[in-house]
Specification:
- The chain is of the alpha/beta class.
- It has one domain: Alpha-Beta Barrel (TIM Barrel), CATH 3.20.20.
- It has an 8-stranded mixed beta sheet with strand order 1-4-5-6-7-8-9-10. The chain has a two-stranded antiparallel sheet with strand order 2-3.
- The protein is globular.
- The structure holds iron/sulfur cluster (SF4).
- Iron/sulfur cluster (SF4) binds next to loops.
């Protein structure tokens, strides 16, 4: 398979067929993110797409295991116009007609750029389970991190997706508000999640990646990272205040110190117990020496 640059996919798509349709991210400016800094956003050449699809189809045929789901990469495939997305899906289906769901990363602004009719059409084509970086429930944090969208945008566009019947999975970052804002961030995140009603919420802990704009702000003292106890308190506050029992709460990211994952209604109690145990046992000094967050 011919691919371009480092590829990222959500941990929950570990068993999904991955296909690179675009390279890079249209925004590429969030302070905390350096995932696509080496690429400028563009589409993957159709000849390469066809050749990758042919190769994958050959493998599927040999093992008699057709794909039912695909995850389209890179950072923001959903930024393509509805007509272009339709073209890509039709092309993929020429080789893999059995695919029922096309999942991908999406940005709030990419949803905003689609009409309600576009969303309905994309849903009919099989686009579902969009991974959206809402990141935080605090407007000033979105602005500081240069996310390029507001809380109001997040709420409005999530509601449009819900009306269109397109499931979305909320990507939130623990510790994004910096030191002293953990509990406040937790309440704000829970309030946002309760409003936007994602099927899944994924929590990952903020990591100051080398070379990111955030790293410069940490060096200059304009951003001070929260300690681990504060991060766990933020996570606990979110979990305690979500009121969507059927939502899957996934906080088992490699960047999290205390992996927990389960349904809010059924599993909240044991997940809170585990977070409380971690909070009680947490020795910040020891933790800083043993748990290193540097890469995804
Ligand atoms: S966080 Fe998402 S939108 Fe922001 S730069 Fe990274 S990939 Fe792009």
């Amino acid at each position: 398979m011919i691919t371009e640059g480092t590829l990222y996919r959500p941990p929950l798509e570990a068993k999904t067929f991955l296909l690179q349709v675009t390279a890079g991210c249209t925004h590429n400016a969030c302070q905390f993110c350096n995932m696509y800094r080496e690429k400028s956003f563009h589409m993957i050449d159709e000849d390469i797409l066809r050749s990758n699809l042919q190769e994958e189809k050959r493998i599927c045929d040999i093992y008699e295991r057709p794909h039912r789901r695909a995850f389209l990469m890179d950072g923001d495939v959903f930024s393509l116009s509805a007509a272009n997305l339709e073209k890509k899906i039709k092309l993929i289906r020429q080789y893999m007609p059995e695919i029922e769901v096309f999942s991908m990363y999406a940005a709030v602004r990419s949803v905003k750029s689609k009409s309600d009719e576009d969303l309905a059409k994309l849903k009919d084509l099989g686009i579902n389970d969009l991974y959206i970086g809402y990141e935080t429930g605090l407007d000033d944090v979105l602005a500081f991190m240069n996310k390029g969208t507001t809380l109001q945008d997040s709420i409005e566009q999530a509601e449009r997706l819900n009306s269109a019947g397109i499931n979305h999975r909320a990507l939130m970052i623990l510790g994004l508000g910096g030191t002293g804002r953990g509990e406040e961030s937790g309440y704000a995140a829970a309030e946002l999640i309760n409003r936007i009603k994602p099927k899944v919420t994924r929590l990952a802990t903020l990591t100051v990646f080398p070379g990111s704009d955030l790293e410069k702000n940490v060096r200059s003292g304009d951003f001070v990272e929260a300690g681990e106890k504060e991060i766990l308190t933020e996570e606990k506050t979110i979990l305690e205040n979500i009121n969507i029992p059927e939502m899957y709460f996934w906080a088992s990211h490699v960047l999290n110190s205390t992996p927990v994952a389960g349904y809010v209604g059924k599993d909240r109690k044991w997940m809170l117990n585990r977070l409380n145990s971690s909070l009680e046992e947490m020795d910040e000094e020891k933790f800083a020496k043993t748990f290193k967050r540097k890469h995804l």
